[in-house]
């Protein structure tokens, strides 16, 4: 089995006041689209989705991790939470491994605290990814240290890519939409 477990913390300044920032990040579907390596698979409700994390390691081993997520915005505490959830209507993910691929269920989460800086907001976010996957059969003859290196690559390098890519994509989307009334209206 491959153990994948990692987290990363990032902080950045968002160019809007706190309530506008919360509104911008209030749609879970949009938040998922900002994440590199994450694809939206299914929408159950506006704040409940299934996503797939996908990466190719060592140039030939595809890792796919599915998770069902729910999002919550707390306008009073200035927090954004995206957490794994079990949904009665969700089709279970069947773990499987082929020669060069592994597919399974995992856990993904984002917790962010927002701080008012006047006309800007400081976001401090923690991203986590965890999964236990069958190793691709092509890895059966590999030493355990190589398999551990692949898992470590996912948890270290890919988590940095995801966090930094999320920040870049969110800032770019906000700047592209600045002045767009639909995105900047505050929710009641």
Per DSSP, the total helix count is 4
Biggest sheet architecture? 8 strands, mixed
Our estimate of the beta-strand percent is 35-45%
Low-confidence stretches: 179-188
CATH names the topology as Alpha-D-Glucose-1,6-Bisphosphate, Chain A, domain 4
* Total domain modules: 1
Q: In sequence order, what are the helices and strands, one letter per element?
A: EHHEEEEEEEHH
CATH arch. level architecture:
2-Layer Sandwich
Would you write up a description of this structure?
This protein has 188 residues and is of the alpha+beta class. The chain has one domain: Alpha-D-Glucose-1,6-Bisphosphate, Chain A, domain 4 (2-Layer Sandwich). The chain has helices at residues 18-24, 28-33, 144-177, 181-184, and strands at 2-14, 38-45, 48-57, 61-74, 79-84, 96-97, 101-116, 121-133. A hairpin with a 3-residue loop joins strand 6 (96-97) and strand 7 (101-116).
List keywords for this structure.
alpha+beta, Alpha-D-Glucose-1,6-Bisphosphate, Chain A, domain 4, 4 helices, disordered C terminus
Short description:
This protein is α+β, with helices and mostly antiparallel strands and 188 residues long. The protein has four helices and eight strands, in the order E-H-H-E-E-E-E-E-E-E-H-H. It has a single domain, classed as Alpha-D-Glucose-1,6-Bisphosphate, Chain A, domain 4 (2-Layer Sandwich).
